[in-house]
Inverse folding.
């Protein structure tokens, strides 16, 4: 059984979009605005700086009772004492992640189709990410967008926490939740916002209207 986590407002980091404000400061502001889960996503950092950044973010997140997930890299997640890992369909296997990180780690898996969501039912994961719900310039090597209908279809297949990712912004977030997602995973709408605290607050407000 994994440690407890709240998937409602899941911030995935992006160093380029954070700009001169930096990842750590952007995460700090976003946590103040109500982010409930953070994923450190680094595609270009070498091992040691990746571990250092993960340790730094873990401290910032844990000070606010929020878990830190590492994208892709099991060794970084383990060395940094992160709370879990997010895996895509082409990453390490869920079994390998479970073996490396232990029974209480939070393991998330991207699902890009109904078939992948069905297959994921057999796996020891803690949440699924419907990916992508909408097309996004932040990541272009994605599968075809699932749309809201895809989120509804995946929702019907699983009782696990379901987050949606890809092109989520303040204008479409409510309909993503109404389609059955338990959480909103966002990069640009918070990382690139002029005021990440306020951007997070606006998403967080949907919790009471949803
Ligand atoms: C919450 C969440 N959902 C989906 C992804 C994408 O994972 P993946 O397909 O492995 O792609 P990369 O992020 O590794 O480029 C994610 N990171 N987080
Ligand atoms: C990291 C990532 N994964 C995706 C997937 O579909 O698997 S979409 C994506 C980027 C999401 O960024 P934004 O919130 O700026 O659209
Ligand atoms: Mg990946």
């Amino acid at each position: 059984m994994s440690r407890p986590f709240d998937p409602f407002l899941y911030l995935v980091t992006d160093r380029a979009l954070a700009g001169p404000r930096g990842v750590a400061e952007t995460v700090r502001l976003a946590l103040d605005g109500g982010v409930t889960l953070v994923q450190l996503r680094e595609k270009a950092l070498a091992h040691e700086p990746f571990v250092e950044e993960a340790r730094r973010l873990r401290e910032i997140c844990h000070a606010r009772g929020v878990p830190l997930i590492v994208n892709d890299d099991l060794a970084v997640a383990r060395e940094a004492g992160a709370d879990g890992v997010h895996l895509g369909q082409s990453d390490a296997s869920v079994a390998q992640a479970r073996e490396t990180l232990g029974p209480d780690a939070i393991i998330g898996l991207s699902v890009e189709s109904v078939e992948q969501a069905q297959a994921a039912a057999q796996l020891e994961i803690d949440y699924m990410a419907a990916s992508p719900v909408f097309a996004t310039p932040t990541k272009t090597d994605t599968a075809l967008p699932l749309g809201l209908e895809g989120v509804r279809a995946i929702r019907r297949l699983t009782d696990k926490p379901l987050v949606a990712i890809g092109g989520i912004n303040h204008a479409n977030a409510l309909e993503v939740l109404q389609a059955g997602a338990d959480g909103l995973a966002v990069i640009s709408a918070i990382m690139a916002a002029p005021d990440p605290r306020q951007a997070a607050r606006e998403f967080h407000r949907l919790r009471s209207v949803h």
Observations:
- Residues 37 and 167 are 18 Å apart (CA to CA).
